[in-house]
Amino acid sequence: MDKTHIKQKVILSAVAGMILIPGRAHDIPAAENTGEQPFVQASGIESVLEKCYETEVKDNINLYLVPTEEGEYLNMAFSDTEDFTYIRSAPEENSSWVGKLYQDSAAQVLEYLDGWTKIKSGSAEGYVPSGSLITGGEASRRAKEYEDHTVTVTAYVLNVRDGQGTGADILTQVRLGETYEVSGEPVDGWYPVKVGEIDGWVSGDYVTAEASYSYGETKEEEEARLEAEKRRTEEVRAAEAGAAGSAVRGSGITGQAVIDYACQFIGNPYVWGGTSLTDGADCSGFVQSVYAHFGVSLPRTTYEMVNSGYAVSYEAALPGDLILYDGHVGLYMGDGTIVNAMNEADGIGICSATYTNIIAVRRVL
User: Fold this and answer.
1) What are residue 265's phi and psi, to 5 degrees?
2) What average pLDDT does the structure give for the chain?
3) Which of 6, 53, 308, 353 has a CB 3.0–4.6 Å from the CB of 58, allowing a cystine?
4) Is the pLDDT of residue 83 over 60?
5) 305, 329 in Cβ contact below 8 A?
6) Which DSSP letter does residue 12 get?
7) What are the strands of the beta sheet with 322-325, ordered from one edge?
8) What pLDDT sits at residue 76?
9) Cβ-count burial of 79 within 10 angstroms (0-12 exposed, 13-18 middle, 19+ buried)?
10) Over the stretch 169-212, which tens digit does the pLDDT of each residue have?
11) Which residues form the NlpC/P60 domain (predicted)?
12) How many helices (H) and strands (E) does the chain have?
């Protein structure tokens, strides 16, 4: 299944305050409660091992202590199941389920029982069949297989292209704070990503790359996630319907297509009197040149653009509409934002549509 469940930053963690051996638990000083699952430090491990030998389990110690390169020992496990395994409230098959441990997820071992293992994976804590887990030395050897590599967008809007470099065609755009799975090895500072059904590339200059594990989720978290996904689907359908409504009759041009094109030039310079989308433009020159790309002729100045097309209210504004101010103009993106040639310091960028008083909203499509 697609890994749509909870992802967390890589923190390989152990049980606070104890190392677990089947049938026994040996206390060691607990870590301070920092909100993260704590490490069991290497210091003091010798005394734990001595006790283990005394209990005649020395032949099995490597099954439950997983060493990392840093020298700590961790009770780490990974799921070994198709799709998912129910995390149950008690170590019995007919007990209620409290969460799900998904395929390729990581977990922290809390207790070994007869045929069952108590785990914590993300916020979900409970019991899973022991046969659904990879533990011990095998977990250590295979840990890299379970790593997910992701990038998080650090730019307000980032183009996803069909190849490496700004000369490649734009396939779609992603937004600030969104995280996507890296689908292969980076090339020349560009990362291959999958955005929905689209496979493309993003510039490493505008993303933060991380390695992480996938974790399970509680029953409540799953319900909230599914509800959020349902809302997002409805919003996308509504946006598509709105964009379709802004099309030029018979031309196939949509306001969203205008915005997608305009956003390619974010970061380029502001030049007073300029009309070049790459070398520099002022606010009206930017809007005029963007629409010229689609064969739509607009006046050169904001004072003339205020009479272009026809008036609509700000509440009814759609992507591609002109938002006019006293001596300034931008293109409405939706969600209360405009893309515009701002000033010499900021160049072409995005800001709030209501940063100052709006004089007019004009629709030219």
Assistant:
1) -105, 10
2) 79
3) 53
4) yes
5) yes
6) -
7) 310-311, 360-363, 322-325, 328-334, 337-343, 347-352
8) 85
9) buried
10) 888 888 788 888 898 889 999 999 988 778 999 999 999 988 87
11) 252-365
12) 6, 28
Tokens 């790593």 correspond to 147
| DSSP track, 110-165 | EEE-SSEEEEEETTEEEEEEGGGEE-HHHHHHHGGGG-EEEEEE-SSEEEEESSSS
> Residues with Cβ < 8 Å from 146, sequence gap 6 or more?
78, 104, 105, 106, 213, 214
Query: In this structure, are residues 154 and 207 in contact, taking their beta carbons and an 8 Å threshold?
Result: yes
Q: Any residues with CB less than 8 A from the CB of 224 and at least 6 apart, and which?
A: none
User: Which position has the token pair 């904001």?
Assistant: 302
Paired residues of 349 in beta bridges: 340
Q: What percent of the chain has pLDDT over 90?
A: 49
The 8-class DSSP code of residue 365 comes to -
**H or E element at residue 173:** strand 170-175
**How large is the average pLDDT for residues 237-257?**
59
For residue 24, the cross-strand partners are 21
**Residue 46 confidence class, pLDDT cut points 50, 70, 90:** very low
Going by C-alpha positions, the residue among 51, 24, 48, 28 that lies closest to residue 38 is 28
Q: DSSP of 295-332, one letter per residue? A: T----SSHHHHTTSSEE--GGG--TT-EEEETTEEEEE
Q: What is the DSSP letter of 42?
A: S
Which residues are CB-contacts of 210 (< 8 A; sequence separation ≥ 6)? 9, 10, 149, 150, 151, 152
Q: Find where tokens 């283990």 sit.
A: 52
Question: How many CB atoms sit inside 10 A of residue 242's CB?
Answer: 15
Check: CB of residue 72 under 8 Å from CB of residue 41. Answer: yes
Q: What is the pTM of this model?
A: 0.44
Largest Cα span, the chain: 90
Report CA-CA distances (Å) from 352 to 70, 240, 334.
47, 22, 10
42 Cβ neighbours under 8 A, 6+ residues apart: 70, 71, 72, 73
- Name the residue type at position 257: A
User: What sections of 61-218 are H helices per DSSP?
Assistant: 136-142
Q: Which two tokens stand for residue 240?
A: 């598509």
| Cβ within 8 Å of residue 20, ≥6 positions away | 64, 75, 109, 110, 111, 112
To which H or E segment does residue 255 belong? helix 255-262
Question: Distance between CA atoms of 301 and 58, rounded to whole angstroms?
Answer: 83
Is the confidence at residue 107, as pLDDT, over 80?
A: yes
